[in-house]
Fold these 4 entries.
Entry 1:
Amino acid sequence: MASNSPANLEDVPSVDIMTELLRRMKCSTKPDKRLILIGPPGSGKGTQSPIIKDEYCLCHLATGDMLRAAVAAKTPLGIKAKEAMEQGQLVSDDLVVGIIDEAVKKPSCQKGFILDGFPRTVAQAQKLDEMLEKQGVKIDKVLNFAIDDAILEERITGRWIHPSSGRSYHSKFAPPKVPGVDDVTGEPLIQRKDDTAAVLMSRLEAFHKQTEPVIDYYSKKGNVANLHAEKPPKDVTAEVQKVLS
């Protein structure tokens, strides 16, 4: 929908325009929400994010995708980001915050946003807060998908894939009829390299080291909600709705 520039709105089918108008009318009654999602790989952040986005009419801001889009669109900030990347440097916090600043002014972000994968450091959190303050808004909630590393290890290291069909199994939660073998073809299952305990442990270690100070920073402001991310998705959704109501 959003890709239609106003110039060719007359080419958009009436039913699509009506649907979008109804969506916007329904959205206009919702309270604004500006959220940050923090959680390790496998914590269910990716499952909850689209549900929250639709429920509260928010836009989903994944900083990696936004940077790539800005570079592709050759925006002034995108050009700067491209120069940094080409020189093998990290894109500066000011640049990333600038790109977020641009993004949140779009109509799709009118009711607020979900920030995913940012801020990763306290310095980034401070810059983000300063930028939002200039707009007269602030972060409403930080949803911390808290989950025990051991549970994550079980969730992730139990994953088995049938390469040619993409069918996935889990040795505990959704096992194949015969261990290590695809139900349909009888072909062997594999584990992704990233799904091994060693890789996961190093990712989790980096994650905790990086994000704990950020969670502390927002805890002091009193807007962190610690979710029980080990529960089934439906329960986590209910918990999120309670926290955001």
Note: The chain has nine helices and seven strands.
Entry 2:
Amino acid sequence: MSLAAGKKVLIVYAHQEPRSFNGSLKKVAVDELSKQGCTVTVSDLYAMDFEPRATRKDITGALSNPEFFNYGVEAYEACKKRSLTSDIIDEQKKVQEADLVIFQFPLYWFSVPAILKGWMDRVLCQGFAFDIPGFYDSGFLKDKLALLSVTTGGTAEMYTKTGVSGHFKYFLWPLQHGALHFCGFKVLAPQISFAPEFASEEERKRMVASWAQRLKTIWKEEPIHCTPPWYFGE
């Protein structure tokens, strides 16, 4: 019986073009994980026309304070009353069922594309992903793994300590630590595909193959030690 059998994976995918390099990485992940016996679900955010804006439309019932709108408070109350809008509840259900959540996206301004940021803002709400207290190591998603699979415009040399963009771990801090670890996720090492647009066809194929290869043993991996020294050194 393989480690993967019966595991559930959610891929949250943020790219507009199915034939893109991000599309290839997503496809190879679906193929490899399915072959292992995992159940794989993809949230293709652009194809779903996913709403990134956090607004009062996210709350279907009465507001707890109609006089003064506070999104965080209202989403928390709505989460407890099960009165969040259906697109949020659908995504929360997928997260709830997943053993591993993979985020596949191109780096925009050292961060996620707006549509994926909106997914994080709306789906990972208080009451579902965390509470106060109930965050970081006691976040509600603490039995789950998360992994960022990112493509960059800049080259690997640019994303080093002495490179013009600084070490790639610096831009991972707010995403991996401030969002995923905050919600309790155990974070696996990122998969970073540097500058696919400037790589040869051969190099791109190698990058896709190395991702597929890594996924073969993904269930044996240990999470990173998600604390400031991992990102910034001692």
Note: The chain has a mean pLDDT of 97.
Entry 3:
Amino acid sequence: MGSTNGLVAAKGKQPLFSFGLISDVQYADIPDGRSFLGVPRYYRHSILVLQRAVKEWNANKKHKFVINLGDIVDGYCPKDQSLSTVKKIVDEFEMFNGPVYHLIGNHCLYNLPRSKLLPLLKIQSFGSHAYYDFSPVPEYRFVVLDGYDISAIGWPQDHPKTLEALKFLRQKNPNDDKNSPTGLVGLERRFLMFNGAVGKEQMEWLSSVLQEATKLEQKVVICCHMPLDPVASSNEALLWNYDEVMNLIHRYTCVKLCLSGHDHKGGYSIDSHGIHHRVIEAALECPAGTDAFGYAEVFDDRISLYGTGRMLSTDIYFHSSADLR
């Protein structure tokens, strides 16, 4: 990529594989607008960002797959256009010459229920769950979390998961508008309706996957639409139970990187256990002619993220437990 930010590839050593990355396209055929914080959003332009991304990924000819970190269509998309618009963006992703792994985000669920959304995204699910894992090479495993497992959006209104989420929000957020953080302080500000949680069954599944990865001596990349570390993210964008999820992940040494979207400005941190957290900058917030997408080259000892436009490049070197003592 001619406009790649920052990194210079290490000479000589070839990556095990590479893959494309994009997040928060949030396309809609509506005029530009602003977020609740006043940040401009370019709803019609974002499809052009995606098209340029796919063109770049295909030109590379080596990327094994693409990961979309969620929110492909915006919640302001007119609801009579939701199905056709989701199909339109999925079709753009399908122009990539390889598999595309999708995560679901809150804006996806504003548009379509899980029963319609997951088949369109080719997420092979059981019971409408959207968590899964895959291993592109024997040395690595990618684990995709369903951050809206416990959520007030996406499930039927009378579904136990909806009722559990609404009860949780009533306990944690005193505002009538459960998307408002008014009066909430610090990390409490994550208790908003546009976020969600990983449920008990998924936690058990995650533990079993990490056990298996440990036995196979695989390095693991966790993908979740919502960020899992407060240092990398705004408090308002965090998974409700990020702390529980990270406590589980920290029991294992196999996890090296957590990739997220949702917090559109992007972010990066290394947590107390040496796990890297990278929140990818949103394609939605690119003015005309600018971009936010990239790709990752994966090595045995590091992952190098190469960003285009608003997506910053990041060289992620893995820490051993000995390095953190």
Note: The first strand starts at residue 17 and ends at 22.
Entry 4:
Amino acid sequence: MASICLSNPTFATPFLGKKISFRENSKKTYAFVQLGRTRCAVDTPFGGNVPTFPRTRVWDPYKRLGVSPDASEEEIWGSRNFLLQQYSGHERSEESIEAAFEKILMTSFQQRKKTKINLKTKLKKQVEESPPWVKNLLSFVELPPVDVILRRLFLFAFMAGWSIMNSAEAGPAFQVAISLAACIYFLNEKTKSLGRAFLIGFGALVTGWVCGSILVPNIPSILLHPTWTLELVTSLVVYVFLFLGCTFLK
């Protein structure tokens, strides 16, 4: 009998005229507590105690972020990060700050693009207005892709370093011969003419050797390593001319 009373406790009173269930009473009490529960600021996405960005309606993106139109990229990034941290948690404020920042970035990108186009246009116009001999000279020059320039620069820099490291044992004749062969190979691959490749390659070699023989004696000895000979420094000049000849000449 006691177990039955504990499993479903009910109470009867002569005043109410009906039985009161403990479970029903607890449910009503829980519902009352739920309805009366106070909501905090975290539960409200756009209100409560979360600070609101006051310049959401400002049209100018620079004024909205609080920077001048001449502000640097670091200042713009710093203002954006500061405002996002200050108004974190308010979705509309964060969207307004991000929109102004993205608009500034887009404007900067368009200005840089226009500047590049203007530089190319001005350069092309100067070439068209240049004397005929300049046009003929520029017709023999081309600008290859950056990866081609870097690969050939690495090759001739390696030859120069090899010549310097081997200068105490022997001269740079072997390294110069390999560099000349590489220059002719690159030119033949580009021009599809072995004769033209030989002509440009030997021309670059002779020109570099003559210029090196003239310029190197005029260089102060303080700027050169004591163990570097005239032949070694001249070969370094030759490497530069071979690089320029096989990379930029047609």
Note: The two ends are 110 Å apart (CA to CA).
